Amino acid sequence: MLSSNQVETLSASEGVDPSTWEPRIFAFLCNWCSYVGADLAGTSRLIYPATVRIVRLPCTGRVDPMFILRSFQRGADGVLVSGCHPGDCHYSKGNFYARRRMLMFRKLLAFVGIDPRRLQMSWVSASEGSKWAQVVTDVTNEVKALGPLRA
Amino acid sequence: MDAKLLEREQLLRLVDALIADCEVIAPADESSFSAVASAGEMQLAQLKPAKSPKELVFPQREVLLRYALAGDEVALDDPPPPAAVDRVLIGTRPCDAAAFPVIDSLFGWDDVDAAYFERREHTTVVSIACDQPCETCFCTSVGGSPAGIEGSDLLLTPLREGNYHVQVISERGRSLVERYERFFRASDQAHDRERALLEDEWQAAIERTVDLDEIEMADFESPVWETLAQACVDCGICTFLCPTCHCFDIQDEGDPNQGERVRVWDACTFYEYTRTHAGQPRPTHYRRYRQRIMHKFRYYPENMGKVLCVGCGRCIQYCPVRIDLRVVLEAVRG
Amino acid sequence: MEAITENIRREARRLLQEEAVDVVIGYQPGWDGVQPVPVFVDQAAEVDKLVYNERCTHNLAKYLVGREGYLTSRFRPSDQIVRVALVALPATLRAIVALLREYQFDRADLILLGIVDGTPVGIEPDVEVGRIAADTAKEEQIRAQTEELDGMSLAERREWWREQFSKCIRCYACRQVCPFCYCEQCIADENQPQWIERSPSLWNNMGWNLIRAYHLTGRCSGCGECDRVCPVEIPLRLINSRMLDEVEAAFGFVPGRDPDAEPALAAFQPGDTAGFIR
Predict the structure, then answer these.
(1) Does the structure's ipTM exceed the value 0.90?
(2) Is the CB of residue B331 less than 8 Å from the CB of residue C45?
(3) Which of residues 161-200 of C touch A (CB under 8 A)?
(4) Confidence (pLDDT) at B132
């Protein structure tokens, strides 16, 4: 797993071959639920697409839309924000704020012509390893259908 | 070379011929100059777009070097030199043209900016004189004129008949006329006289002038500075639109593995401009505004012998709070 | 118009003579005698500088806040209170409501010389100096342009905005005239880390314009100044106006209308729904 200061350097996805192209998805995971859930998927040896690059945060409430914009600029084709279920936030309320923010940010993206489905969100708890694998699979498929962002 | 005449339709044909041989840049819309694919795309009625033509020789973003990490080695690459593409800049007003020699002094001082002069050498400036100055123009207050020749290679002055009087000012201008002589015809003394009379008329049409010779800039510590800029919001419009402003910042853009070192425009009006770890000598905006005025009208003349202003008036026209530089200059009499 | 000018001058004179305020912030005629310039009058003898005409659009609340704001300046000793009287347009009044809700200053430090237009606003001016008609023409224009954009495909809209943002020269005039851009260190000026690079490439410009639009979501007073001042005519008000509509549709919140309502993005309801969340 990569921590926040190890985000890979990614070059723009230019000259892609549609048959082999896989999307790059940056995932911002909360430390207490989703990150642990993702770890569980790993220890359970679940197979799921290797498209996500994970950044660990204390809480989805920490996700500043600037991270999302920066991700797109740095080569992400999609961004996934995943945290504790509403009501289960380790800090009580962070995910509630995140929910409103991501909703509004998707509206902004849609207005300026960036497909809002490139910004995805999920609630994955620490015990939901298989849900994590499913979420990544579904998000990968959806973003793959949208094509590279730079195209 | 003696003056020439150019009929209006011949100007369009000349431009189409130029487009076949080189890049032609003209006012494209209200905001900027850009390359045109045909004479019909020129917006000559819009002679002074918001953005000045300085970006042709001083781009807002210029790559200085590229770096890439390969294992333990860092590869540094100079960017390719600006393409030695000949360009004709057509449709500048004399004020915008006059800005080029003013900032030549800066870019040629101390460390000569080779890329800047490469671009300069490949740019032929064909200006069109102003038969109708704007309410915000004040070129005559800074030594310019609606039909001034400073900085131009050719100056086209619209005459009453509808054609243009063509003054050949430089070698570059001469060689353009020689190369495309089929479009020009000879001017005679009557036309030359008409041009001079029109210039006088247009100079007189500038409503609001400032006698800079009489202005002795107020002392640095004078309290007058504090009230002049109260409305200023510290944006970069006056600086970025000004044909003579040339301050820049150098930034690295990229990531630890690869990126570019770029030069970008900067503005002394920004708070960040003089913000350093050692402190901030201009924390309040009257200090920044004082710096701007002093630099343009005292320091630059002292250092370079030229006023850092051509009187185009964009700073007045586009200022979000309509600060009028002419009013300011009158108010800062020492 | 003349009546409003007279009212402003009368109130300003009274307030300064009675020493109820230290400064009156309003508009004065500019270089052509018509285009207004913000003015800061601190002498009763100078109140005749103050005018009002339909070209007075600057959102003067901008001068109250921020690093050098009259009510928030860090360059003034904290025990030195400046009391301000402000000529406040409808959008300015909305901005004041939102700024108060963001705890930027005390209501008591401010005397509002309000110009109202009948649209709902969550604050009473101390003195109503004028009534003007609501600018429905502007609303109509925004609606029409937005409809046109909504009629485009996503790809067409993306291309349209890319063309707009590639014009941006990063002069930050949009930010500097906005009462809500009062951060002492704007995210665009951060360099540890550098979130938004300074150079005006398309993506850098998009980063700037989109993050500003997002930071205004749920706060913007709809004054339109950002749009007016842009030297390269990027239609910024379309974005801010759209986000105001989105906030209202999703959360029933309109900034400036209710002084007690929690700002939409600084609040939540446990029952908020967002259908896209897996």
Answers:
(1) yes
(2) no
(3) 161-162, 187, 195-196
(4) 87
